[in-house]
Design a protein that fits this description.
- The chain is elongated, with a radius of gyration of 24 Å.
- The chain has one domain (2-171).
- Helices cover 71% and strands 0% of the residues.
- By secondary structure, it is an all-alpha fold.
- The model has no long low-confidence stretch (mean pLDDT 83).
- The chain crosses the membrane at residues 7-25.
């Protein structure tokens, strides 16, 4: 009887420790997902604020290029709550027109830095979210499966058309072969 009682107490203790450990770990994962998600949102907000400042400054300057004016106004009207292909394409066109007009802006370094910080925070979140056993817990949460990188545009240098680059990457994913640059 003493042996049975001892085994039962040991099993109950072990189950209790496992349940408490699970809830502590779950709370830790939820807290980390929330802070990483907020960090991404803050970094995106800083980036879009700098975009808006750049656009306002360029609109106030006397720009002769009608196409650039059109893209600046379009950028102003795009909702920038999160990354979108439309936003990426407009930024590509603005950068392209600024390069063709040889217009240097003091925002290039700041925007590139903002993009790097944003992408790093996205990388941290995405890796944490898919790492086992975090992925088991994160599956049942309100947090997104992943955030998108903003990695096609570099300000102040000539870039490849994002639509073209996405098409090549999608083709590479589908058919394999050498990864497109």
């Amino acid at each position: 009887m003493k042996i049975l009682k001892g085994c039962l107490i040991t099993i109950i203790g072990f189950v209790l420790i496992c349940v408490v450990g699970y809830y502590l770990y779950r709370n830790s994962v939820m807290s980390n997902l929330e802070s990483s998600s907020k960090n991404i949102e803050e970094n995106w907000k800083k980036y879009t604020e700098n975009i808006n400042l750049r656009n306002e400054k360029l609109i106030l300057e006397t720009i002769k290029n009608d196409t650039l004016q059109h893209y600046l106004k379009t950028s102003k009207n795009i909702e920038k709550k999160e990354f979108s292909r439309e936003f990426e394409y407009i930024e590509y066109k603005i950068n392209e027109k600024l390069m063709s007009e040889n217009m240097e802006t003091d925002f290039n370094e700041k925007l590139n830095s903002n993009v790097d910080v944003y992408n790093q925070s996205v990388r941290v979140y995405n890796i944490y979210r898919v790492t086992f056993p975090n992925s088991l817990i994160a599956r049942k949460t309100k947090y997104p499966k992943s955030f998108n990188y903003f990695d096609i545009i570099r300000y102040g240098i000539e870039n490849q058309n994002p639509k073209e680059k996405r098409r090549k990457v999608d083709n590479w994913i589908k058919n394999g072969g050498i990864r497109p640059e």
